[in-house]
Amino acid sequence: MDIVGLSLFERIFFTVFPLVIIVGVGFIYARRRPTDMAMANQVNIDVFVPALIFSVMSSESFDLPTYSTLALGAMVVVLGSGLLLWPLCRWLGVQPKTFLPPMMFNNSGNLGIPLMVLAFGEAALPAAVVMFLVENVLHFSVGAYIMDHKTKLFRMLRMPMIAATLAGLVWSVWQLPLPTPVKTAVDMLGQIAIPLMLFALGVRMTTIDFTHWKIGAWGALLAPVSGILIALLLQPFLQLDATQFGYLVLFGALPPAVLNYMIAERYQQEPHLVASIVLTGNIGSLLVIPVVLAFIL
C-alpha cells in the first residue's frame, strides 16, 4: 500500500501497526510455547541479514556517495550519545559499561530497517541499511572495546555482515553483473531477515524483568532524547536534505538493540540490568516513535 497520500495519523498507524503485530505474534507464541531463538538469531545474523545487505548494496540503485554524509551523522549520533550520557552514570548509580552501550547502540536492525521502509517507502531501504551497518560496525568495534580493552578488532573482518558489505561495495562500485537466478535467491534470503528480527524481538520480550524498572525507565527516556538531540545539533553542520534528516532523527530515536543484552551476558556485565534497559526501552518506543514520526513526516 502506498501511504504517501494518507493523512499523518494514518501514515503513523500504517507504519507502526505492522511492526507491533509481528512483535506481538512472537510474544504470544513464545508465551504459549517457550521458544529458544538462539539458533534462529544466529542464522539470521550469519545468513539472512548479510543477504539483505548484499542485495541492497549490490543493486544498481545503490549510490554510496549519496549516503556518506548520512553515515557520518549516524556515527556521531552513536558515539555522541555515549559521551553525552557518560557523566550521568555516577548520578544514576550505574556502571558506564552497563548503561552506555544500550544508550549508544540502537535497534537499527530489528526495528529501524522495517520502520524506515514503512515510513518512507522502499526508497529508504539503502539508507536504513547504511545506518544499520554503521551502528553494527561500531558495536562490534567500539562496543567490544568498552567491554574488554583486550578485544582484537581484526576479528570484526570475519563477520558475515562485514564480508557482505565489502562484497556489496565491490559489486556496486564496479557494477559487476549478477546472474538473475543468483540475485533472486539472494533477494529471497534477505527478505527473511526483517520479519525474523521482529518476531525474535517479540520472543525476547517475554523475558522482561521489572525488578530494575527505574534504570530501565531512565534508559527508555535518555536513549531517544540523546540521539534526537545530537541529530538536531548536527543538522547545521551536515546540511542533510529533508528526507535524510528525517532518517537521521528517526535513527536517533530508536530504542536499545537487543544485541546489547546478548553481549552483556557474554561478558557478564550485569546482564539483568541491561535486559531491563533494553526491553523497557523497546516498550517505551511505542510511545516515542509515533511522536517522532509526527515530527518528521
CATH fold call: Na+/H+ antiporter like fold
Which percent bin holds the helix content?
Answer: over 70%
Radius of gyration: 18 Å
- Going by helix content, strand content and strand pairing, the class is mainly alpha
Report the sheet with the most strands, covering strand number, pairing sense and barrel closure: none
Strand content: under 5%
The gross shape turns out to be globular
N→C terminal distance:
17 Å
Summed up, the helix count is 13
The total strand number stands at: 0
Order of helices and strands: HHHHHHHHHHHHH
Q: If classified by CATH, what would the architecture be?
A: Up-down Bundle
Structure, described:
Keywords: Cell membrane, Membrane, Transmembrane, Transmembrane helix, Transport. It is found in: Cell membrane. With 297 residues, the protein is mainly alpha-helical. It has helices at 8-32, 38-57, 68-85, 88-92, 96-104, 108-120, 125-147, 160-174, 180-204, 213-238, 242-253, 259-267, 271-296. The protein has a single domain (8-296), classed as Na+/H+ antiporter like fold. The chain contains 13 helices and no strands. Helix 3 runs antiparallel to helix 5 (96-104). The radius of gyration is 18 Å and the shape is globular.
Question: What's this entry about, in short?
Answer:
The protein is an all-alpha fold and 297 residues long. The chain has helices spanning 8-32, 38-57, 68-85, 88-92, 96-104, 108-120, 125-147, 160-174, 180-204, 213-238, 242-253, 259-267, 271-296.
